[in-house]
């Protein structure tokens, strides 16, 4: 049984805690800078992120349980901890093909399917019931929202957010730090640092995440 510290204590952290329990592991602390001092909620330690210095023993691992891709990245940079200290979380009711590589710190939620040959980066979120088909590449700090479908050979670049219920057709590439709006259908490549929405998806903003 692994002991895990979550950085972040929001709704997203609650879902990750449930994924961790489903793996038979335990959350021992939830650290968040909105807390000014250490306290206990049941057996779970809560407090500011600086508590990590005392809590990070050899047998403990961490997950950044924060939905914002940019904030997740900035916390990983701020903590500057070796990548092996980040746990990989896969809900017991997710289906992840045995050939799939999942990067450290990534979280795969209930109902997700990740198919053969997919490559999953670090600190990525695969939200409930999303589908990542064969040979997709999903880079670090991405968020594939609930019900989104990446069909075969899709690439999603670092930091991009694919909105709930959207679909990306085979072979299409989404750049880095781009947002695909909820319910969109992406039928051609989308550049980096933009927001694209609609069916078919069109760029509506150029600053991205
Ligand atoms: C467990 C969880 O909850 S995980 C969270 C998952 N979250 C999501 O899936 C949210 C995805 N976010 C969205 O879809 C958002 O609407 C965004 C990011 C695409 C756009 O948000 P904003 O930048 O605030 O854009 P804004 O709301 O100002 O809309 C700009 C225009 O785009 C349109 N638009 C916004 N989102 C969409 C969309 N998903 N599909 C179609 N059109 C859209 C708006 O109607 C508006 O059009 P108008 O200029 O003609 O009035």
TrEMBL record:
Annotated binding of acetyl-CoA, by residue: 143
Please indicate if the UniProt record lists Membrane as a keyword. no
Q: Which residues cross the membrane?
A: none
UniProt binding sites for substrate: 10-12, 32-33, 67
Any keyword Transferase? yes
Site feature: Increases basicity of active site His: 135
Q: Which residues form the active site?
A: 134 (proton acceptor)
Q: In which domain of life is the source organism classified?
A: Bacteria
Q: What keywords tag this UniProt record?
A: Repeat, Transferase
| One GO molecular-function entry | transferase activity
Q: Cite the PglD N-terminal domain residue spans from the record.
A: 3-79
Any one Pfam family match given in the protein's UniProt record, by short name: Hexapep
Protein name (database record) = Acetyltransferase
Organism of this sequence: Psychrobacillus psychrodurans
């Amino acid at each position: 049984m692994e002991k895990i510290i979550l950085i972040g204590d929001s709704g997203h952290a609650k879902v990750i805690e449930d994924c961790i329990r489903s793996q038979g592991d335990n959350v021992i602390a939830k650290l968040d800078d909105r807390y000014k001092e250490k306290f206990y909620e049941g057996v779970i330690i809560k407090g500011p992120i600086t508590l990590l210095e005392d809590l990070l023993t050899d047998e403990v691992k961490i997950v950044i349980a924060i939905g914002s891709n940019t904030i997740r990245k900035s916390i990983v940079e701020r903590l500057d901890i070796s990548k092996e200290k980040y746990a990989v979380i896969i809900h017991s009711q997710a289906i992840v093909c045995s050939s799939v590589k999942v990067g450290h710190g990534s979280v795969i939620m209930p109902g997700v399917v990740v198919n053969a040959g997919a490559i999953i980066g670090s600190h990525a979120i695969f939200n409930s019931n999303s589908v990542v088909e064969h040979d997709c590449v999903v880079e670090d700090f991405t968020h594939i929202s609930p019900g989104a479908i990446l069909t075969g050979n899709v690439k999603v670049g670092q930091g991009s957010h694919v909105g709930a219920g959207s679909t990306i057709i085979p072979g299409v590439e989404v750049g880095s730090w781009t947002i695909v709006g909820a319910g969109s259908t992406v039928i051609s490549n989308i550049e980096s640092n933009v927001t694209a929405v609609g069916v078919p998806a069109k760029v509506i903003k150029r600053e991205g995440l």
